[in-house]
Amino acid sequence: MKFRAVIRESSSMRDFLNIATTLSKCGKDLIFNIRQDVLVIAVNIESPHAALPMWCDMEKSFFEEYTMEGLSETHTEIILTMKSANLVRALATGRATLPTFVKLKLVNKNMACLCVEMEIPSSVTEKNRVVTNDVPVTVVSRRDWGHYKLPEMPEFWMVLSMPPAKDVKPVIETLKNTAPVICIQTTNEGRKGTVSFIAESGIWKISCHCREQSITCDPNLEEDENVMSCEIDTKKLALFLTSSQFPNSPMRCSISPDHLVKFEVEIQGKVTMICIIAATNE
User: Fold this and answer.
1) Which residues, including other chains, have CB under 8 Å from residue 95's CB and lie 6 or more apart?
2) Which of 139, 149, 195, 225 is buried deepest, with most CB atoms within 10 A?
């Protein structure tokens, strides 16, 4: 098994660190699912410390270089688990001074490690400084791969855009300690739609409506409902919005008929981060 990936573009290096930081705030253990054409970084929902099912698909084109050899010709994947804090700590070296590159490599140093190598420009000499951090990982056995697969996604008929996290977070933070459950509602109004956040008790009701949002409907799915709604845990939604290191990035929301809410964050048009929150009554 071999894996090597290099990032050289400055915006991509920042995005990679912010992706790792976002996921680390939602779970203490991460999964690297390394495939031929995509790297999937996910919160390990099998871990007792997992808070939210979240993951990020990073296409091969995100990296300047990307090479891997799977377990075998028939099982062309590598699945690793690691502590999220260790990965963030290894990458944080490049937060203050942007590196010229970030290299990821699977190595064996008496134990399996993900080697994170960065070249940091020096302010003192002309020669750049190379910093290497080894993140201990567990290589998941083939027989256990099934435990680390992403949850199967239902079909979502309606996908609506919504304001970025920085605009929605203050509303949800206000409701977090007074409304344990919040209703998410998406409404198809023709060419545009509305995403609503509704909280209520016996004596009060608070609602926030994000109107005139772009809408996409799957023409291959037959669906008569123009309104989809789902009640979810307010604190889980607040955790997702607070954890996101992409406060200005475009977001999308969709609700499945079996009461799952999917939030997507589009990162520079290159990467999509996905968070799934199930209904409270499921």
Assistant:
1) 17
2) 195
Strands 65-69 and 2-7: antiparallel
How many CA atoms lie less than 13 Å away from 112 in the CB half-sphere?
14
Lowest mean pLDDT among 110-119, 209-218, 219-228, 259-268: 219-228
The dihedral over CA atoms of 266, 79, 22, 122, expressed in degrees to the nearest 10, equals -100
Tell me, letter by letter, the H, E, C secondary structure of the chain: CEEEEEECCHHHHHHHHHHHHHHHCCCCEEEEEECCCEEEEEECCCCCCCCCCEEEEEEHHHCCEEEEECCCCCCCCEEEEEEHHHHHHHHCHHHHCCCCEEEEEEEECCCEEEEEEEEECCCCCCCCEEEEEEEECEECCHHHHHHHCCCCCCCCCEEEEECCHHHHHHHHHHHHCCCCEEEEEEEECCCEEEEEEEEECCCCEEEEEEEEEEEEECCCCCCCCCEEEEEEEHHHHHHHHHHCCCCCCCEEEEECCCCEEEEEEEECCCEEEEEEEECCCC
pLDDT tens digits for range 239-265: 999 999 999 999 999 998 888 999 999
Could you give phi then psi for residue 243, rounded to 5 degrees? -75, -30
* pTM as predicted: 0.90
Per-residue model confidence as pLDDT tens digits over 3-62:
999 999 999 999 999 999 999 999 899 999 999 999 999 998 877 666 788 999 999 999
Q: Residue 232: beta bridge partners? A: 182
Burial (CB < 10 A; 0-12, 13-18, 19+), residue 32, is buried
Cα 60 from Cα 40, distance rounded (Å): 10
